Amino acid sequence: MADRYPERWLMTDERMGVALWRALVRIPPGSGVVFRHHATSARERLALFRRVRRIARARELVLVAADPPLPCPVHGRVAGATTWPAHDRSEALAGARAGAAVLFVSPVFPTRSHPGAAALG
User: Fold this and answer.
1) Which residue range forms the structural domain that includes residue 93?
2) Which terminus of the chain, N or C, has less C-beta within 10 A?
3) Is residue 92 situated within a structural domain?
């Protein structure tokens, strides 16, 4: 992954549905995409990932996957992860200790993915 990291990131998951494809063509080149799709079966997930990767490459988007073994940099709570989710101070410190290049601090605003969680914003 490059020495400079995107300022704008798209977090994907199953809830996006077909809006994923609109988002991928509208997000500015040089932005990042965190491919999450945890609930998708392994075979479908790999096929979907490959389709997202083709678009990301064509549009010069930085792509990371929330879970190995997808063939790209890793997002998550594992040693060597490029990006790391931090929902509290202890997770942020763990990411720093693990050497993550980017910490995603959330939720800044109320979010569907963390209902009831205290927002920072």
Assistant:
1) 76-110
2) C
3) yes
Does residue 21 fall inside a structural domain? yes
- 2-45 pLDDT, tens digit each: 567 899 999 999 999 999 999 999 999 999 999 988 888 989 99
- Domain total for the chain? 2
pLDDT in tens, 68-109: 667 676 666 655 668 888 888 899 999 899 888 899 998 888
Q: List, as one string, the DSSP characters of 19-63.
A: HHHHHHHHSPTT-EEEE--TTS-HHHHHHHHHHHHHHHHHTT-EE
Please check whether residues 17 and 63 belong to one and the same domain: yes
Alpha-carbon distances, residue 101 vs 25, 58, 83 (angstroms): 26, 24, 6
Angstrom CA distances, 9 to 32, 38, 46, 102, 108, stand at: 4, 18, 21, 11, 14
Task: Kindly state the helix (H) or strand (E) to which residue 102 belongs, with its residue range.
Answer: strand 102-105
Check whether residue 55 and residue 84 sit in a common domain. Answer: no
Which residue do the tokens 């932005």 mark?
A: 31
pTM: 0.81
